[in-house]
Amino acid sequence: SDVAMYFAKEGRSGVEVYLAEKDRNSPERLNLLGDLRRAVGDGELQLHYQPKVNLSSGRVEGVEALLRWWHRERGPVPPDDFIPLAEQSYLMRQITQYVIDAALEQVAAWWHSGLRVPVAVNVSARDLLDPTLPELLEAGLARLDLPPVAIRLEVTERILMTDQAYTADSVHALVELGVPLALDDFGTGYSSLVRLQRLPVCEVKIDGSFVQRLGKTADDERIVRSIVDLVRSLGLRSVAEGVESDEVAGYLREMGCDAGQGWWFAEPMPAGEMTTWLRARVD
Ligand code: C2E
Ligand code: CA
Ligand code: CA
Ligand code: CA
């Protein structure tokens, strides 16, 4: 099945592999989906926020909203366990609407109190192609008196690199609206230079799997360096994901990578903590 393919490609473990090996209609899968349906309604979903930091100036450039689910019985369920499931059902649309609404409310609270940090939200394939997405964003931005650059969408390489995305009306409408797009998980797909050049993205996020190996092997260093160079030559900004140490941040800075995100700077945290964190750093 698609789910099994997805997990096989991502090389994941634990619950996910267990789910992947099961049939699409397995009790386990249906349970989690049923629970998720309830969770969306009952407010068990919440956003956490993680800052993105400029590697040369140390300035906070924005924050990424990351979905958290605190399951009544299971405790925290990681997004990598439930997003792929939700993507196979109508629930994903509802989840994305929740994420966009919550992120917009939060960015408005920050923005209007002087913390002008854009919030990035992750959107999945079908949501990006949903013709109502631009309207939803436009209405939300207007209602909260926010400029389009207060929000941005992160879309994975595998989705944005398809012809379907390139020609989608929704993508053109988003560009028209002025909402920036970022290419997520770069390096894990099969992008060609030509495609990358044609895409309406302003930022490329280098997948954490390459970043974390910096300093360990010369190959990984060459890969990251060539991505950073490629991204710069296209006039786009490079952001490294999964920066876990000062050493790695140093390598990236030396390579000319623009920004970094990861535990070295801050872990994803609830909105209240993020506000305190930002207040101490943004003027
Ligand atoms: P992503 O968009 O690539 O997000 C980055 C992931 O790396 C997050 O995992 C984040 O918590 C984690 N991370 C941050 N810093 C570090 C670090 O220094 N080291 C390591 N090893 N990891 C770090 P998380 O929160 O578990 O999210 C996993 C994935 O789930 C995300 O990957 C994204 O694809 C998806 N996701 C999360 N929230 C949403 C959402 O609201 N909507 C959609 N469609 N997908 C989401
Ligand atoms: Ca992301
Ligand atoms: Ca990513
Ligand atoms: Ca990822």
UniProtKB/TrEMBL annotation:
Native organism: Sphaerisporangium melleum
Domain EAL as annotated: residue spans: 29-282
Lineage: Bacteria, Bacillati, Actinomycetota, Actinomycetes, Streptosporangiales
Portion held of the full protein: 393 to 675 of 697
The name this protein goes by in its record: GGDEF-domain containing protein
Organism domain of life: Bacteria
Keywords noted in UniProt: Membrane, Transmembrane, Transmembrane helix
Key word Transmembrane present: yes
